[in-house]
Amino acid sequence: MSDLLNELQRYKALLILLVVEFFLLFLFPPQLLFEQTIIAGGDTASHYPTAEILKQRLLAGAPPVTWSHGNYAGFPLFLNYFPLPFFAAALLSFAIPMQVAFKLITLLAVIPLPLAVCGCLRRLGYRDPIPVLGSAFSLLFLLMKENSMWGGNIASTLAGEFSCGIAFSIAVYLIGKFHDDIGRNRSLFPNSVLEALIALCSGYPLLQVGFGSSYFLFRLRFVRYLLSLHALAFCLIAFWLLPLLWRLPWDTSFNHSWNIRHWTEVIPLSFLPAILGIPLGWAVRRLSFSLPEEGTDAEADRYLWWQTAIAVAGFGIAPLAGLVDIRFLPFAQLMLLLLGASGWGRLFIRLGRPYALTAAATAGILLWGAFHLDPIPGWIRWNYGGFESKPLWQSFRQTNDFLRGTENDPRVFYEHGDVHNGAGTIRAFEMLPFFSGRSTLEGLYMQSSVSSPFVFYLQSELSQAPSCPFPLYYYSRFDARRASEHLRLFNASQVIAGTDQTCEALDRSPQFELQVAFSPFRIYRLTDFNPSYAVPLRYQPFRIPEKDWKRTQFEWFRASSLDVPLVVAPGGSGDGYWNRLQEWHGDLRAMPRQVIANAGVGDVEVRTALEDNRIAVETSRTGHPLWLKVSYHPDWKIAEGSGELYLASPAFMLLVPHTPRVVLKFDSRHGIYAVGIFLSLAACLTVAGGLLHGRISGRAAADSTAGAHIPPPAIHPVVWVFLCLAVVAAVSGRDGRDPLLLYDRALQIYQESDAAGPSPEDPATAARRAEQLEEARILFARCIERFPSSPVLDHCVHFLALSFLKQERWQEAADMLLPFLESHPDSRVSAECLYHLGAAFRGLKDERASTDYFRQSLERFPESLWAKHAAARLLEAIPPEELFRTAVDHFEGEDFLRAVPILEALSEHPELALRPESARLLAYAQFHRNQWEEAAKLLIAWLNAYPSHPKAAEAWVTLGECHMHTGSYEEALQDLKNALALDPGLAGSQPFRAVFDTVEEFAAGIR
Fold this sequence. Notes:
Blueprint: H1 2-10, H2 12-26, H3 30-33, H4 44-60, E1 66-68, E2 75-77, H5 84-92, H6 98-107, H7 113-123, H8 130-143, H9 154-159, H10 162-182, H11 188-199, H12 203-212, H13 223-236, H14 238-246, H15 272-275, H16 277-285, H17 294-317, H18 329-351, H19 354-371, H20 376-385, H21 393-403, E3 411-414, H22 432-435, H23 452-461, H24 480-489, E4 492-497, H25 500-508, E5 512-518, E6 521-526, E7 534-536, E8 542-544, H26 549-559, E9 566-568, E10 606-611, E11 614-619, E12 626-628, E13 636-640, E14 643-648, E15 652-657, E16 661-666, H27 672-697, H28 717-732, H29 739-754, H30 763-786, H31 793-806, H32 810-823, H33 830-843, H34 847-860, H35 865-874, H36 880-892, H37 896-908, H38 915-928, H39 932-945, H40 952-965, H41 969-982, H42 990-1006
Parallel strand pairs: 3-4, 8-9
Antiparallel strand pairs: 1-2, 4-6, 5-6, 7-12, 10-11, 11-16, 12-15, 13-16, 14-15
């Protein structure tokens, strides 16, 4: 036994590390990991088909970069996203099923981090037990629930950031390894390989490692090593990185700035005990006595502080570079924990029982983690349980089976909404190409296609809760009619709707008809739809300059008639088709339709075939321009036949064929791709040669000083001050660089003006409110001016108008709203703006205009909450009987949606004699809209208020039908009996008997 204890003492650090790792592994049930189900949850599910595609590419011996027709009207897969995790899953799937292989690869974002932390701290020269204590502290980072999108922790991995997590672990280890190797001028080739692996997994850890290495630039002799390292890593991944950088103009920038509302989002309360080690370590270091290697720890601490500062600086500067700022903060969080481990470890060493105290601290963290895991275990079961275990799996599978087809069939659009979560993830229908073979519009890799802004604008036209992801693009209100035009443009013939509001709108729209329903999903098809991926132009297009073409095309998509495309003039000059087009500088809403001479569009026969990296087009008339409804990319080349290819509205291709058959090929083998492959091969040979030379010679490639550690110099305090000032400046200016942050700041001040005090009559309170309103008004106006196409433009206008109305500045409110509505007919706040205009003109004593705007808000947007408010304001100006007749006309015309807001206003009026009849018709209108629960609630209230009403029996029958539709058969039976008690004559009514017998049968079955 004593020998065993002595042996365990030798490996006590390893035992603690193994306990930490086993704790992590315990969170992931093996039965879920090895079950052959398709992983679900967040973005993770949408990554799965990518691994399947890469496996097919490997089997075919084809380049990894390929064209995917399935999303965003097509995009280049693996050109703008990181291939290594998918490559690893594809290789592993040759030994085990892909479903299992992919799940196991995602674990690489979580399980290795404690090992990476331990290795990092050891390479930094920290004494035991600091490295293993840092591994234990990394659990606090992995288990935190304060963020699920930043990257690095378990929640982010489950949300789909596993590529970032894999790179994060490698980067953490490499940060420590750099520090150890650079002073000895060793491991140049292995370190370059590690940096290349990071880059092939995620860009943000790469930027942290790259900019963090600036710490070593203060000793000039390290510059050569750093330049060689980064250059070699760049060449190793040049096969992928060079094409990515070369084609950046052909992606869609996404520079989201995270809105941090409280410091605990960045430093969770669970971090505080660990971070307390930082001041403790500082105090210990300043004790009068010292320990060996104390200076080494202090230098390593400075290095970690430098990495922390680089991460915070990256957070502040990222939006300026078109990056997502929040991706840098996980490094700052982890570095603070490591600094805390350094301090606590130094204290444990001073106290003389380092491993016992480390074990106790680890046990405390594990105990805390065991009681604070929720909701992580549930997320793990949800993700790794797969699609097949989800409550809506059957409906989801039936929907896909109904839509089954190929990429040559028209595309399918789906409404964005939380209802899809029941199928496995809110992004479930992004996987239509995988589950059904049909192409859809939205997808995961939204930066990879120039069509992304148009797709998300269309999404806002047919979704009750659109995602609106791009902060510099405007989005529409719900508009089924305009959406139908955009769907035809994208060759999308069907819509999957999931919310009652959207289904009701599509049921009313003549542009759509219901095909089938698999609750809660309903599939609608466009009426009079002519499918085609290549359309002969009827009208002469115009050309626009290449400069700022994305903004111009986006406005074309929003405002134009969509049948006169704009062709983007390519760089240079020539005698091509585009050069003969007239340039357009005018109003996109008034583009003239100039029929192409001798067009005979109806006589032009066109056939297209979308294939793997190919588009084959056959036409009966050469020279006639064809509008290809596939996203443009400069790597599309004419491989067979001849013709001219251009970028045309919105981001499609315009083909002018010179031969009856033209074949386009997406070329990822030549040009910049070939240059990248050559550089990567050369770099691989260099690395292999360097490693072989090191093995043969018995040493790593190094100069004569190898083996003698040369520490970096102490950084001058001025440098630290400058870095801190730069960080503060970058972070403090975030609000002015992002419309969402600027709007949020203005909104907070505006809301504070409402809560300025309980006594609005108090002069001091009134003055304070006026100051806050003016400050908020300035910020709203600044956001409108700086970001005229942002997704918060509508809200800024709305609250700016309210700020004027609150101070009875009627004319200023009207002067702002009128031009806005004219220039933004697709505004999401149109109903509110019309209502505010009604209020403004009423304040200006123009009752005619006021009534007109209230009516517009009511009639044009009956689904809006503002319609009810508009009806209430109309009651102040027109006879109630007139408004009631309007509601009855809508009701009798079965336009129940427009009847509802009027009836709501009438039924809530405190003095009207029309209240009973209005309330009854309101309940009936909701019943006919299939709003069974709402109708039942209204009918119960009405019957309680008017039990002896002549139509009470009829109301009881309708209430019974409501309860029948909601499955409350006992209540329904009692309702029908109550109706019979009031009107025994109903027993002879055949419709009543049918309902009664049905309800009675179901009620008996339940009993």
